[in-house]
Amino acid sequence: FAGYISQVLKNYTDHACDGEYVSLRCPHRTTISIQSSFYGRIVPSHQLCPSRYPHSYATLIKEDVACSVGTSLQKMLDECQDRRSCQFLVNSRLFGTDPCPGTGKYLLVWYKCRPNEYKSKVACEDDKLRLSCKKSMVIAIYSAIFGRTQGGSLECPYQNLGLPMFECQSATALQLMTKRCHGKRSCSIYASTYEFGDPCYPGIQKHLNVIYTC
């Protein structure tokens, strides 16, 4: 159980240079959840993915180290999201227009492994959130957000105070929920700034959203 949970909670990072295969894989009963992705080059080739061009050619073309595409996250979501594993060859054609011809690029991807069966619970600000599992099962926290999210929360509609819609989230929510609930059969916590601090401007309504499995 502990090994499985550590794999589920872990943030995975993978990378592949142009012309190489990227391969993402998650353990049994989990699927890939893409967190972030980058395709391009922001460090020189002697640090990551050496140039595949002959040295004489590489000296003629100045390497671009401020090169990226805006489509890499969507491409990774299309190829890998919600699958147990995925593999494909990395090259600029995958991502549309080549942002820097003549410069060797690479793909970086950050992902987690989400349990196939998971529960989601929301508590509005100052309400109590209670999690519980059946007998002989314990809680495994997958993610926790305290604050205000771009899409809002159906369970906790915000009052429109004329403020622009923006995100503000506690940086310690996952750590706190894990400490309070992980490995226990049941637990409870108040969705309050006393517990989580206030990541938003004063007066902004917040909520706590926890995803977990038993």
UniProtKB/TrEMBL annotation:
GO terms for molecular function: carbohydrate binding. Gene3D superfamilies: 2.60.120.740. Residues 16-114, 123-214 form the SUEL-type lectin domain. Pfam families: SUEL_Lectin (PF02140). It comes from the Eukaryota. Keywords: Lectin, Repeat. This is EVA1C protein.
